[in-house]
Design brief:
The complex is a heterooctamer, with two copies of chain A, two copies of chain B, two copies of chain C and two copies of chain D. Chain A is of the alpha/beta class. Chain A has nine helices and eight strands. Chain B is an alpha/beta fold. The chains are: A alpha/beta, B alpha/beta, C alpha/beta, D alpha+beta. The complex binds thiamine diphosphate (2 copies), iron/sulfur cluster (6 copies) and magnesium ion (2 copies).
Chain lengths: 248, 189, 352, 79, 352, 248, 189, 79
């Protein structure tokens, strides 16, 4: 019996622009595999956001639209309302989704837009050079929090999955991580489930993916995986926070 | 004194930005007008970064050097291809021959081949390859003195242990020495 | 179908439906609320989608998404709401996506007031979005013209692949006037092959974007846009002339102000003064021709606006020093009377 | 009935950015960054050292952010 | 203190601290990130507050609150970020609150690119906020001038109670040049008796607002603003003339482009052509004087911008048909070379 | 023993512009009384928002600033960062806070800004003429939901108190109602507690007040009280959702 | 036919807006040019709302009537104070004397005092006071016919039970009758 | 020791908008909208009908959105 592990048809054959060891690439693969597995590549429209993943339209083998910073959920809403029978997803960073785009993502969930959101929480603004994000951990150093984030100055990080589980319009909310092969496999399943929710018309689904930014964190790619495990997971527990229905 | 327009280019980690800053700082210390302009933006790692340095005796107009560089210091192959054409006839190109094994085909340039990485290793730190190139450059042009560069060193770098200082100085000297016996190729125009 | 009496705002909404509008996204704001209210009631009956956005920022990006997906899309707001759309408008213009954006102007600046105004002329013609882009701005003066311009707006938007403004104000939006709806084209002239539909495994993926990190490519995109804008400047300027022949003074006014100016011209005639009106019906492209053609016995050009003087720069650029250009305006929601404008004219021409 | 697994791991050298995520995830530590090689983008790519030991667990594939790894895993029945 | 070599962005940040900036609110965006990064490190050491906002929209309204409370407030962004601030800027202008807003321009439209550009000229001079308001825009050409304009900006802002723009770009922001910091005034000249402090039972409550539902009152507010703007237009225009005496052609350029133009003028001189430069150092108010004073032997005015032609309208309005006005520009982040500009001049003047 | 119930010093002596029976007026009194009770009138700065309560600066006897629609929390942040020792509050409607101003309010909570938010949930946009709000109940008719809000079209209403209780930076989150004298009295105590949290430096406090809009709802003022009780309270349960500390 | 400029004003609930709309609609039915412009915005309840109606034979310029109304219909006291001054000399003011017990002091106007509320009650519905005033107005001006108003009625109101129709018609008639025996005060100019 | 409470309820007629919230909250139903009066703003204000019965519970004060009600409540010791 032969099994082949190779680039999925959901991805174009192209070098990515990501830094070495940046886990954006892993999540791209998981999304692309989910779309391929569910056989919806040709039926999918993706909304890229502003952040390191803005160029993801160069990688996903589906129709894609670039959204202004934070607005991908509004853009996805526009797309989905024209094509209710297509699969629509956004792919957003934590600066994009949890900071400038807070209103848009909350209201996509509120309206129960039948879209899937892939939310990359890497606790930092990667693209612009490592500034503080709303998800930056207390004590974590960034270029705009040179002494580390100080909760007495700007609070403690937002927990997006927990918050969104409280929005009535959300159907499926989960948090996963990609810091180890085991977790990557679990993340893949979760992302597939989120898309299945959309396929079956349950409304808003979101997967928060704890991800690394070795460049922004000033760590080697492998150190970054460990840092994620040791620091992010305790503050951002993994799991399914809401699931209105048990589907596969 | 003649003004100098230098383009300095290489991979992200090769220190081309600080090479340019040191030179500009040294120029300022010597009372001249200077400017330093970096390429910027989310470069794909493995891409090429560069900076432009102007040193002159009157206020600097455009800090960008588009097609009239007096000299290009190139630390990797893509930089060599991109910037060699921008040097004026009669100008210089300083090539890091540790990483570039092509040679200039322009007959109107003075080309110098400096195995900067290897020389840097002999100075105790491969990261000093940029200083090797700078040493060669100031030796060739005389645009600033080595001591001004060493003064600038204190300003540009936040980390400045005595050991780094020493390695730095050594790299400058070895760089200068590396071209003392070189006949620039092609020999003349 | 005969004449019916309608509010300007509702007539615009009805015209949008008849013009084949498939999607409306917007956020409530006075004095344009009749538009979303009408559409929330009527658009679904025609198979269209009305969706209230959480803000004007979101609305304009929903418009962007829906337009990219091939919808015929409308949004509507008033002055501060349009201010919030500036980034999105720049994105729409850059991505070359068609849509219609209605501005029922109210008084500013800041939160200002809700009474009629034309103080968004700069906003409508020079934007506040980043970069080099322009947006065709149609400025109706009657409700009949409003409904005609609505379908024209969709056509221009799709022909040139650009957002288009319709510039109204609280007076035009709130008043009622008889209006007649003529048959309108509902379908785009050209198939939207550029739209997002999912590639269905049958073509290369479509990518809609505005970012280019390579300056030379971005410059190329800009040049393409500029070529389009020159084309629009050539083909789309619209204006009305009213009694300009033999006029000693030309008044320039657009939209609801132009109606008042017509009354002033009537008043002036009774006192023996021949005044004429040039009414730009497009603010960008600003019509050059009627200004080139101003001639003897005209001695003066007077621009009248419900603001502190904005269009007057375009008037100056078009008159090119051939005649003196002056300005008179009221602002803050105050509507000038025909009489006070006539008085201005008399003052300018010297007492008789 | 014991099974034997063999696997062929291929690394697309010019796609590899030398990040080491594959190496750190290989339970058998078969992968290593090759300090002596530079690919066209200036990275030191990873290499597999004792391919014959590879059990085709695909951890390396799963962790590679750059789709540089392809694995053909064969499960041989019996022993 | 002597000269020090600094990045334009960092020099601006340092100048803000020395200029008595007490509060900074902003959101990261390339190519201005060195400003918040510097201030997050340094401002707290001087007792000031650095706070990262969740967006540019929030940032400008934090600025509004902090300014109303009496702070000396700065924000900084780049083109699309400034687009998002338009509503807030209109509110700040209407409420007559001082603050300084930095725009380190990048290429547009839309998300565009991150390389230098001047395509926000309209945005900087005519805004996209609603209503009649103007914002003084200072446009430095060197890093030395940047730091000088920073303290000037705070002074103008407080003297006239208005937001003030500093218009930079990716080139000026990212380059390093020697700069010298001179002693700066840190305190406002007049006490801010209008600021929110809590009335402490000792005075009537302060109310800061921009809404007036009564048109006559809102018109009055507008007229007050306009009076102030006329005052600024009279007193604050700034410009530089470079070799304009005896020039056959006058080039007009601002900011970093003006530096390149100076090189072109040098090149042209070598070929025997006398070209001069008018450099507006304020974009609004746009300086009229140097244009009024252009005279023989000038035959032509050529406006050079890193955009598709925006300032050229102001140049035309100022030249008033006394000379032909042309435009040359590059865009998308492409920086023109001294040589290509010189070539344009030669083409215009006819080959010799 | 004599007790006088009369207009508090926290309010100016002025006719309000509110519709007859609009409970905005009641909440104004509660806020003004809390500030008077805590003796902080002279030390308080209020941020009015865009909505029917925009003119509240004409009524509260404290320094006030008008904020653009949705931005009061950002404005309050600016004010508070200049005057950390003053009491700063916002007074916002549900269109203002839960729709256009979502990002600003979430991030004021996220940063744990030491301000107090009075959130008037009247399930509608009052000022602009009764359009749908994110808090409009399913089935409730509005001028932009002429057949009643349809969850399959635009989701189910946001529950703000529940959501904000999940934000780490929030210190005190409660929901009260003003549909009966008993509830008004309870609301007054709760609002006072929220200000006390701020006084004691605990960071972000918010009281959601279920309120009526007889005009927007098309009901008489008294019918509106009943409608609130019968329809809103079941969906928006009253109570304290978060309190990091027990203080009085 | 002569053009007519009417301002019609009263408390929010007094139906002044629909009075104006009915008139404009009737004018349109008769083939004339018409416009209707309301005051708008969040009026404080108890404040005054008003509308301007133009009926003419050429396109309407300004829909706003600033100072040259041919007639003002005023339903409450604030409206009387605000709009009586805007009527042209020789024009008319129709006063709802049920709520206004002041009288016009302008000698150059024709003033009519109509106890509209009382009359409406006799027609079966106090809400018909506006129709009473309209009846009087069209009787005085003849600008549109009663039958056009009744046709317009079908267009303007969504609720139009036969009973409402009947009450409406009665109100128009009683309104018309109410001024048939009135000598406008002051008697003449 | 029984207490007797008396209360004087004053209504600022021109502030009252006739909304009826006070009336609906009075446990003794002492307040009524006066259909026959119109205040300066055109509202029918509320009136108190049997003041002597009022027990000063202040519900009406608490519910009045327009600060139109003032109550002086006196608690008389003994009885
Ligand atoms: C309106 C606007 N503001 C700011 C920016 C600058 N910007 C680009 S990406 C980014 C943040 C990216 O961070 P995140 O969303 O976390 O993505 P990451 O790069 O970390 O994956 C910012 C602030 C922009 N492009 N547009
Ligand atoms: C930017 C902007 N968008 C829209 C509006 C119009 N507007 C004014 S108030 C309001 C909603 C008010 O509703 P809410 O906040 O619930 O307050 P309420 O009146 O119900 O108390 C809207 C949409 C505005 N003034 N500014
Ligand atoms: S900056 Fe961070 S998030 Fe962006 S590509 Fe590099 S590692 Fe990934
Ligand atoms: S497949 Fe498993 S065992 Fe083989 S190299 Fe990859 S990680 Fe190592
Ligand atoms: S994970 Fe991929 S990119 Fe990283 S070292 Fe291994 S093969 Fe190379
Ligand atoms: S519209 Fe509603 S919220 Fe506004 S004042 Fe009237 S009743 Fe109150
Ligand atoms: S105080 Fe109580 S008993 Fe007296 S009138 Fe008011 S509600 Fe009624
Ligand atoms: S509650 Fe107040 S406003 Fe309402 S009826 Fe009673 S006294 Fe009047
Ligand atoms: Mg991030
Ligand atoms: Mg509300």
């Amino acid at each position: 019996m032969l099994k082949l592990f190779t680039r999925t048809a959901g991805l174009k054959d192209r070098q990515t622009h990501y830094c070495p060891g940046c886990t954006h690439g892993i999540v791209h693969r998981l999304v692309a595999e989910a779309l391929t597995d569910l056989d919806i590549l040709g039926n999918t429209i993706g909304c890229a956001s502003v952040g390191c993943s803005i160029l993801s339209y160069n990688y996903f083998n589906v129709d894609m639209i670039e959204s202004a910073h934070g607005r991908a959920p509004a853009v996805a809403t526009g797309v989905k309302r024209v094509h209710p029978d297509r699969i629509v997803f956004t792919y957003q960073g934590d600066g994009d989704l949890a900071s400038i785009g807070t209103a848009e993502i909350v209201h996509a969930a509120h309206r129960s837009e039948n879209i899937t959101v892939i939310f990359i929480n890497n606790a930092i603004y990667g693209m612009t050079g490592g500034q503080m994000a709303p998800t930056t951990l207390v004590g974590q150093k960034t270029t705009t929090a040179p002494k580390g984030r100080d909760a007495s100055h700007c609070g403690s990080p937002l927990r997006i999955a927990e918050m969104f589980a409280k929005i009535p319009g959300a159907s499926y909310i989960a948090r996963v991580s990609v810091h180890s092969a085991k977790h990557v496999r679990q993340a893949g399943k979760t992302i597939r489930t989120a898309f299945a929710y959309q396929q079956q018309g349950y409304g808003f689904s979101m997967v928060e993916v704890l991800s690394t930014c070795p460049t922004g964190w000033g760590l080697s790619p492998v150190e970054a995986l460990d840092w994620l495990e040791d620091n992010m997971i305790p503050y951002y527990p993994l799991g399914v926070y809401k699931a209105v229905e048990t589907i596969s | 004194m003649k003004s100098q327009k230098l383009i300095c280019a290489g991979f992200g980690g090769q220190g081309v930005m600080s090479l340019g800053q040191l030179l500009a700082y040294a120029g300022m210390i010597e009372g001249r007008e200077v400017s330093w302009l970096p390429s910027y933006g989310p470069e794909m790692r493995g891409g090429t970064a560069y900076c432009c340095v102007n040193i002159a005796d009157r206020p600097i107009g455009s800090p960008l050097i588009s097609d009239d560089a007096d000299c290009a210091i190139v630390m990797n192959l893509p930089s060599f291809h991109k910037f060699e054409p921008l040097v004026v006839p009669g100008g210089r190109v300083l090539v890091n021959s540790s990483l570039i094994d092509e040679q200039s085909t322009r007959a109107d340039l003075h080309a110098y081949y400096i195995p900067a990485n290897e020389i840097a290793v002999t100075c105790g730190n491969v990261k000093m390859a940029n200083m090797v190139m700078l040493g060669a450059y100031i030796k060739l042009t005389g645009v600033v003195s080595e001591s001004s560069v060493m003064k600038a060193f204190g300003k540009v770098f936040t980390k400045k242990t005595p050991q780094l200082r020493k390695q730095n100085k050594a790299a400058l000297k070895h760089g200068a020495a590396s071209i003392s016996d070189q006949v620039p190729l092609p020999a003349a125009i | 179908m005969g004449r019916t009496l309608m509010k300007g705002n509702e007539a615009l909404a009805e015209a949008a439906i008849r013009g084949g509008c498939t999607h409306f996204f917007g956020y409530p704001i006075t004095p344009q609320n009749e538009i979303p209210e009408y559409l929330s009631r009527e658009l679904p009956k025609h198979g269209g989608v009305y969706l209230q956005a959480e803000s004007e920022v979101a609305a304009i990006h929903m418009v962007y998404g829906a337009s990219a997906a091939g919808g015929r899309v409308l949004t509507s707001s008033s002055s501060p709401g349009i201010a919030l759309m500036q980034e999105g408008l720049s994105v729409l213009a850059a991505a070359q996506l068609p849509c219609v954006v209605l501005n029922v102007q109210r008084a500013g600046p800041g939160i200002g007031g809700i009474q009629p105004s034309q103080a968004d002329y700069h906003q409508m013609t020079r934007g506040g979005g980043n970069g080099d882009y322009r947006i065709p701005s149609l400025a109706p003066a009657t409700i009949q013209e409003s409904v005609e311009m609505m379908s024209e707006a969709f056509e221009i938007a799709e022909r040139y692949r650009t957002p288009v403004f319709i510039v109204s104000d609280g007076m035009l939006g709130q008043m009622m006037e008889p209006v007649e709806f003529k048959k309108q084209k509902k379908e785009p002239s050209q198939p939207k092959t550029w739209a997002l539909t999912g590639h269905q495994g049958k073509r290369k993926p479509v990518i809609i974007k505005t970012m280019s990190l390579v300056p030379e490519i971005l410059e190329q995109n800009n040049q393409n846009l500029q070529r389009k804008y020159r084309d629009i400047e050539e083909k789309e300027p619209k204006f009305e002339r009213f009694r300009t022949d033999g006029a000693e003074i030309i008044l320039v006014a657009y939209g609801s102000t132009s109606r008042i100016v017509k009354d002033s011209i009537e008043l002036l005639k009774r006192t023996g003064i021949n005044a004429g009106l040039i009414r730009p019906a497009t603010l960008w492209p600003f019509p050059q021709q009627p200004f080139n053609e101003i001639s003897h016995p005209c001695r003066h050009v007077l621009c009248i606006e419900m603001n502190c003087g904005q269009m007057v720069d375009d008037v100056r650029l078009s008159v090119r020093e051939r005649f003196p250009v002056s300005f008179y305006g009221r602002c803050g929601g105050v509507i000038p009377t025909p009489g006070e404008i006539a008085d201005q004219v008399k003052k300018l021409l010297g007492e008789r | 009935m014991a099974k034997k697994i063999t696997a062929v791991v291929t690394i697309a050298v010019d796609r590899c950015k030398g990040c080491g995520l594959c190496a750190s995830s290989c339970p058998l530590e078969l992968l290593k960054i090759s300090k002596s090689t530079l690919n066209v983008y200036g990275y030191h790519p990873v290499i597999i050292e004792r391919m014959e030991e590879c059990m085709g667990c695909a951890n390396c594939f799963v962790m590679c952010p750059d789709y540089a790894i392809t694995i053909e895993r064969t499960v041989h029945a019996g022993a």
